[in-house]
Amino acid sequence: MFGANNLPNSYLGSAVRGTRVVASAPFYTVIPTWRRYLICCACLVCSMVYCTLPTYAVIASFALLYSGVLYSTYTCCACLVCVVIFRRTVLYLYMPRLPILLLNIINQKMSTGGMLSKIVEILESGDSANKISVLEGLVGEDRPDIIEKMIARLDDNNIQVRGEAFSSLVLNKNHISGHLIKSLNSGSRNIRGFVSLILANRNETVAIPDLIRLAGDERSMVRSCAVGALGHLHAGDAGAGDVMLKLLLDKNVDVKKSAAHAVVTNDVGIPRVLMERVSVEWVKDTTADPELGMLLERLEGCVRR
Question: What angle do CA 262, 265, 270 make, to 5 degrees?
Fold first, then answer.
């Protein structure tokens, strides 16, 4: 006999009415699907940022089940493992830092103006120690106004400040050759001379025409630096050979030395007549400066045969 004990559970209690009763649905189905998904995503994101890994796993499991996305226990576990690995390798490493990074960027943008004015103030009127400290941190600087202030420190009263400015400009990897070449027209002999050497150390061959012009400067210190820079840039084949030869007969000893080094380095051919004049004029200086005697011997090897 097919009695009440044989009826399926889904029909118990409704045999009299003859209707089928569906098993009780989960409690979360009373909430619209889109809202459940939205709540699930919010739980996952918040737990990723603010919770530890174990807490995150618990919240994520409840969120996934609550949204009705996963019903299978095995599928839920597999999904959680993938999500946890993803969080640990990516979000766990970067998300906690994101607010700090954003704040740093905002603070940097807001404080750029104040920092700029402070740097300018120190470079213009600070003491030597502060100037050196600031210049040490400007190796990667590319702002035109700061570069100009750095170039101006090449004429500082303190030799250590001048040296630090020189070093910072040489080591700067940015495209600042335009600012340096422009400063070759400065009214300061120190700036004109030191910038010539900076351009040479940076291998700025684009500055060769300006250095050739500067080799005729009225100040001997500038001429010496300019011809030395031309020699370092191997500008003998770029029209600077005649300038180097001409400065062998300069009145200043330092200029003669720089020109001799440039001629030897670039293997510029010396006419026999010019070499005879150099030998006669250098004789009186070789006794006071033995280096001139050694350079004279090296110049003999560059005489045209």
Answer: 70
In this structure, what is the dihedral angle of CA atoms 188, 191, 192, 193, given to the nearest 10 degrees? 120
Instruction: Work out the average pLDDT over 122-146.
Output: 87
For 201-217, what is the mean pLDDT?
Answer: 94
Question: What's the confidence (pLDDT) of residue 245?
Answer: 92
pLDDT, greater one: 34 or 100: 34
Provide the whole-model pTM: 0.62
- Locate the domains of the chain by residue range: 22-114
Tell me the mean pLDDT in the region 158-175: 93
Q: Which long-range contacts (CB under 8 A, 24 or more apart) does 244-249 make?
A: 244/268, 245/270, 245/271, 245/274, 247/215, 247/223, 248/274, 248/278, 248/299, 249/274, 249/277, 249/278, 249/281
Q: Is the dihedral of CA 28, 33, 39, 45 positive or negative?
A: positive
Tell me the Ramachandran region of residue 19: left when phi exceeds 0, alpha when psi lies from -120 to 50, beta otherwise.
beta
Which residue has tokens 């050759």? 177
Across the strands, what pairs with 208?
A: none
